[in-house]
Specification:
By secondary structure, the chain is mostly helical. The chain has a single domain, classed as Hypothetical protein af1432 (Orthogonal Bundle), CATH 1.10.3210. Helix content is about 65%, strand content about 0%. It contains 11 helices and no strands. Helix 1 packs parallel to helix 3. It is globular, with a radius of gyration of 15 Å.
Length: about 180
């Protein structure tokens, strides 16, 4: 299994944007919480979340390469096939197969943007200033956080979670690392 410190060193090499790093840390936290909920390997799921956008900046304007370049980076770095496949699948959005880790990474990737946007509109700019009810209300506002794909967030239902339960798990996971996220 890949060690988290090694994965973080790869992030330092390929990801320059602090906001993107924070997004990847949030995805990791949500994936770990979901793995715990479903009695899955927390390190496997967490590392997949941590490196899921490792190629994002390399792709630039060519988003068709997102996921493709990541596969090369992760293979060369010796990552397990399960993580490589999860990273590749998250770029396919709602077309993911029924593998719970693939579904979780798509949903986690999308929901943390919604939650972050919710925290940023509060005067405190803090995850502790929001709750599930607040995010559920924002979820219904299509103009709010337009980049947070609602269909991908609703993939949580394929995991047997209600939207409310998924948002609660995700928000709680992000709140636990709020200092790392600057929120």
């Amino acid at each position: 299994m890949i060690d988290r410190e090694y994965a973080l060193s790869l992030l330092d090499r390929y990801v320059k944007s602090d906001n993107l790093k924070k997004h990847m840390l949030a995805t990791e936290a949500i994936m770990r919480a979901l793995a715990e909920k479903f009695n899955q390997d927390e390190d496997l799921w967490g590392i997949a979340g941590l490196v899921h956008d490792i190629d994002y900046e390399l792709c630039g304007e060519d988003t068709s390469q997102h996921g493709v370049l990541a596969v090369d980076i992760l293979k060369e770095a010796g990552f397990p096939e399960e993580i490589i496949e999860a990273v590749k699948m998250h770029t396919k959005g709602v077309e993911v197969d029924d593998n719970p880790m693939y579904i979780a990474i798509c949903a986690a990737d999308a929901v943390n943007g919604l939650i972050t946007a919710g925290a940023l509109i509060k005067p405190e700019k803090s995850l502790n200033a929001i709750d599930t009810k607040f995010i559920m209300k924002r979820f219904k506002e299509k103009a709010f956080a337009k980049g947070a794909n609602r269909e991908e967030i609703k993939l949580c239902e394929k995991l047997g979670l209600s939207l409310e339960e998924f948002i609660t798990i995700s928000l709680s996971a992000m709140q636990k690392i709020h200092e790392d996220l600057g929120l």
